[in-house]
Amino acid sequence: MNISIVTVGKLKEKYLKQGIDEYLKRLSGYAKVEIIEVSDEKAPEELSETEMEQVKNKEGERILAKVSPDAHVIALAINGKQKTSEELAESLDKLATYGKSKVAFIIGGSLGLSAQVLNRANEHLSFSKMTYPHQLMRLILVEQVYRAFRINRGEPYHK
């Protein structure tokens, strides 16, 4: 399986990079996983609704340019479906079983995802009703993808 994680912005925090690198190393035995960063749109702190949509649309164009046309797209969205780790594992297993070898997870910027990205997505996934920094979501996501592969292989994993 080829998994891409398309995400907005550069990761600066060393501790997050180290955690992500560790899980990417662990995942290398299960799948090809790549993280694709697209630049975030520079904007002032205070934005009108229209300006927020413009920022999300510009970031959305960059995201969609990095998504393979034949990829199964899973957008991380606060209003998405919440799944257990076992349900995520089952979803990834079904995708692989039915020939969807390319999966793209999308993590938006601080304002979220554009309507175009959400419309392109095959599913919307929420990790919680809480809001997490998008940089931290990268680490949480790669850990859960790793956990999913361990579950699907029947290998032990910390609960």
Automatic annotation (TrEMBL):
Residue ranges of the TM segments: none
Record keywords: Cytoplasm, Methyltransferase, rRNA processing, S-adenosyl-L-methionine, Transferase
Role description: Specifically methylates the pseudouridine at position 1915 (m3Psi1915) in 23S rRNA.
Gene Ontology molecular function: rRNA (pseudouridine-N3-)-methyltransferase activity
PANTHER family named in the record: METHYLTRANSFERASE (PTHR33603), RIBOSOMAL RNA LARGE SUBUNIT METHYLTRANSFERASE H (PTHR33603:SF1)
Record-linked InterPro entries: Alpha/beta_knot_MTases, RlmH-like, tRNA_m1G_MTases_N
Domain of life: Bacteria
Example of a GO cellular component annotation carried by this entry: cytoplasm
Gene (name only): rlmH
NCBIfam families associated with the record: PRK00103.1-3 (NF000985), tRNA_RlmH_YbeA (TIGR00246)
Principal subcellular localization: cytoplasm
Subcellular location(s) per record: Cytoplasm
Reaction(s) the record says it catalyses: pseudouridine(1915) in 23S rRNA + S-adenosyl-L-methionine = N(3)-methylpseudouridine(1915) in 23S rRNA + S-adenosyl-L-homocysteine + H(+)
HAMAP family: 23SrRNA_methyltr_H
A Pfam family this chain is assigned to: SPOUT_MTase
Record's protein name: Ribosomal RNA large subunit methyltransferase H
Entry EC number(s): 2.1.1.177
Membership in a protein family: Belongs to the RNA methyltransferase RlmH family.
Quaternary context: Homodimer.
Binding site for S-adenosyl-L-methionine: 76, 108, 127-132
